[in-house]
Amino acid sequence: MSVLVYTEPHNEKISKNAIEAASYASKLATLLGTTATALVCGEAGDAETLGQVGISKILQVTSGSISQFDTQKLSKAVQEAVQKEKATVIVFSHDFSGKAIAPRVAAKLGAGLVAGAVSLPDTSSGFIVKKAVFSGKAFAHVSVTSEVKVISLLPNSFSVEKTGGTASIESFSPETGKAGVTVKEIRKESAKLSLTEADLVVSAGRGMKGPENWGNIEELATLMGAATACSRPVADIGWRPHHEHVGQTGLAIRPNLYIAVGISGAIQHLAGVNGSKVIVVINTDAEAPFFKAADYGIVGDAFQVLPKLIEAYKQFKASNN
Amino acid sequence: MKLLVCISKAPDTTSKISFTENNTKFNEAGVQYIINPYDEWYALVRALELKETLGGTVTTITVGKADNEPTIRKALAIGADDAVRIDAEASDALAVAKQIADYVKNNSYDIIFCGKETIDYNGSQVGGMIAELLDLSYVSLASKLEVNGNTATLERDIQGGKEVVETNIPFVVSCAKGMAEARIPNMRGIMAARTKPLQVLPGSEAPKLTEIVAYSLLPEKAGCKFIDAENPGELFQLLHNEAKVI
Ligand SMILES: Cc1cc2nc3c(=O)[nH]c(=O)nc-3n(C[C@H](O)[C@H](O)[C@H](O)COP(=O)(O)OP(=O)(O)OC[C@H]3O[C@@H](n4cnc5c(N)ncnc54)[C@H](O)[C@@H]3O)c2cc1C
Ligand SMILES: Nc1ncnc2c1ncn2[C@@H]1O[C@H](COP(=O)(O)O)[C@@H](O)[C@H]1O
């Protein structure tokens, strides 16, 4: 018995989502009285970080055998690793890659899958995993009855704990067959902070009146080291790029801090952001529904409040350094 | 082209979410069901567009009981040619995928379309499982799909960008924003939908590996603390000292 976690590098470094999944896997292994192994597909397996979060062994897939993202090949690699490690629980991040591979792996192994888990399983009677449902409005507690289980962990829902330790590295060349999908091109969206991985997000909506008014939003975000997001109508009318659209039909994000400026807080918008730890709302209308979901609110005109906030942040930064 | 679109129903996005029977059942009182938005706006419409340019048929498939029929009729009104309903409880993703895969094994299709995820259970699971059960390639979270002869070029969302991929027909795709623009059914479509074929098939034996045993709601917020708009700088002290997020 063991726990296996799938990790993959992002921009040469192991991704934040993968580190969370690895930390979750090692905690789960402790809970089950076993150890956690990480399957690393890609060049830069950050062995040190994986060791620190409690992974005891790394299966490093040799470069070449899986050079491109293909769910058929990757799920075969995971299956072989599962057999090798006698893994009974396989952990993924519920991110773009996990959503693509985890269902395949579950079907291949005849394993029950909990997609979007937010905490460690309750093993007091059975194996019950809490996951987000209804677009973040509620949780379901899912009992998994199959012998082998697959869990994909919702990004930003589990705090990474560095327990210290080192992972041994073993090179691994699974038999993966041929790829069904060929990658032609990868297009990176500017070098800026990726929205799904950002801890801090500054977001704005139709209250900003026009795309020319985003200067203050961007300035505040840059100062704070935050990513920028927007409501759907703003992306639909082309004031902002589509990849910034958050909500029911856009990205679902769970940053530590979400600052919403000139967004009314429609239920479909909230669906994408209500997992944020702390929500700040800035709106001229004291009755805007967003205030009900907020931790801190400022009733005021964004055009007056933002310049003051920017100045205040600079002072705050100066006095906290 | 023979195109198959997997359609599920979901509570209207404005539904109030609550639970009954000691938090073990979703409270359906007053809940309006719609076609899961990703299935309708992106998967179905893109399939219809392909049919319009390349010829062929668009069939929808739904695993579920008769209460799915109003949303299936809506998909027919938007333009699907015919519909299949597998009469089985849609409780576990793998069970749903197996029903669909079994149907496809007997009725081959060129492209199987799914939505990105259902907005109630948010799994993003069924598409990948169908692909595995049929040993087909799978392109997840695609925002573009073009067919050229026997191959297709797709764009899919990845961390911090997009990936352009190519695959051979047949394959399974899950559809996200960008794929197509929503269509509103017209009167003619609605009339035609009444007589379009809706075939009901019995479900096959399927494993049930997961089960929802309880629900819980998000913890209530303590309430909003208001900050003076003339002096908003206090916000950062609170975020730093009280909320500890900066
Ligand atoms: C099926 C479905 C799915 C949807 N999915 C999404 C989704 O994924 N994401 C999403 O965002 N929406 C989604 N929507 C749309 C959603 O219902 C709302 O229409 C949308 O979120 C409103 O955007 P908004 O808050 O920017 O604009 P508005 O509702 O127009 O709100 C603007 C706000 O700005 C405030 N304001 C105006 N001027 C100022 C100022 N000077 N300073 C400060 N505040 C000001 C106003 O008081 C108002 O509250 C969806 C809708 C449907 C039906
Ligand atoms: N009961 C069902 N019947 C038909 N298709 C479904 C069903 N459930 C899910 N799907 C399809 O699978 C996609 C992903 O669903 P899920 O894995 O539940 O998030 C949906 O967008 C649908 O296209």
Describe the structure.
The complex is a heterodimer of chains A (321) and B (246). Chain A has 321 residues and is α/β, with parallel strands linked by helices. Helices cover 29% and strands 28% of the residues of chain A. In chain A, helix 2 links the parallel strand 4 and strand 5. In chain A, helix 3 packs across helix 4 (96-109) and helix 5 (215-224) runs parallel beside helix 8 (302-319). The mean pLDDT of chain A is 93. Chain B has helices spanning 37-54, 69-78, 93-106, 126-134, 187-193, 234-242, and strands at residues 2-6, 9-11, 19-20, 25-26, 33-35, 57-63, 82-87, 111-115, 137-148, 151-158, 161-168, 171-175, 198-202, 210-217, 225-226. Chain B has a single domain, classed as Rossmann fold, CATH 3.40.50. In chain B, strand 9 and strand 10 form a beta hairpin. The mean pLDDT of chain B is 95. Chain B starts with a strand and ends with a helix. Chain B is an alpha/beta fold and 246 residues long. In chain B, helix 3 packs across helix 4 (126-134). Chain B contains six helices and 15 strands. Chains A and B meet through helix 3, helix 4, strand 7, strand 8 and strand 9 of A and helix 1, helix 3, helix 4, strand 9 and strand 10 of B. Strand 9 (138-144) of chain A pairs antiparallel with strand 14 of chain B. Flavin-adenine dinucleotide (FAD) is lined by residues 205-207, 231-234, 247-250, 262-264, 266, 268-269, 272, 282-285, 288, 301-303 of chain A.
